[in-house]
Amino acid sequence: xxxxxxxxxxxxxxxxxxxxxxxxxxxxxxxxxxxxxxxxxxxxxxxxxxxxxxxxxxxxxxxxxxxxxxxxxxxxxxxxxxxxxxxxxxxxxxxxxxxxxxxxxxxxxxxxxxxxxxxxxxxxxxxxxxxxxxxxxxxxxxxxxxxxxxxxxxxxxxxxxxxxxxxxxxxxxxxxxxxxxxxxxxxxxxxxxxxxxxxxxxxxxxxxxxxxxxxxxxxxxxxxxxxxxxxxxxxxxxxxxxxxxxxxxxxxxxxxxxxxxxxxxx
Length: 266
Ligand code: SAM
Ligand code: SF4
Hints:
The protein has about 270 residues and is α/β, with parallel strands linked by helices.
């Protein structure tokens, strides 16, 4: 579907949970976030319905994110349900990778097309610090199992924080090459101040060619990462919600004050 700036919007990022097994410093406040009640979170049937309507409006690329998508109970079943929908050409997932040793093979068998795995540092202490407690070895095991499960064109996502890990870019690039993966460097963004940058090694961050909208775990369609404009699919209805959110997609991002990154899905 074309928006009012003639951008073709065909990519839906779906946050399937606002829970996570890490607490990255740039993604959520130290005190955590107020979790949604179970009934506020979209169930699988609702997500399937939303994707079907999205396909009917011209969407064909979908990505599961969160929070950490692999902590959502039954995630493999959801992947299966979505991968079977006619018109879903790409079904990808962004994950911190910690649970991939358990799930990579099942995700592949369920029809997931591709993985993006987040990895900000190859230094054990730094990884632990930026994720507030994560173990680098677990992330590396996840990356290995993605390869072993047969995933191709896997991308690594590194958030670069100046003065913290900007000295690791060469090392991370080398690691990606060794693992036959591409690496994307994303400079740490700040939703509240509106600071955002282009993505080195990938799309995103260039408003003039933006092709996406986002669905939050509690059923709100969002027009832009850096805007608080959102429409509730449950109250407005799915197709109307898509039309409204695309009609109101801003020419460029400003800021978002109401949600943290973990509640939008990045
Ligand atoms: N838990 C999964 C993960 O970390 O890959 C998926 C959700 S996470 C919110 C999606 C992506 O957003 C991750 O690659 C993460 O690094 C990125 N992200 C989170 N906060 C960010 C920020 N402030 N600036 C830039 N990227 C950010
Ligand atoms: Fe969790 Fe991903 Fe946010 Fe880190 S970036 S806290 S892994 S949702």
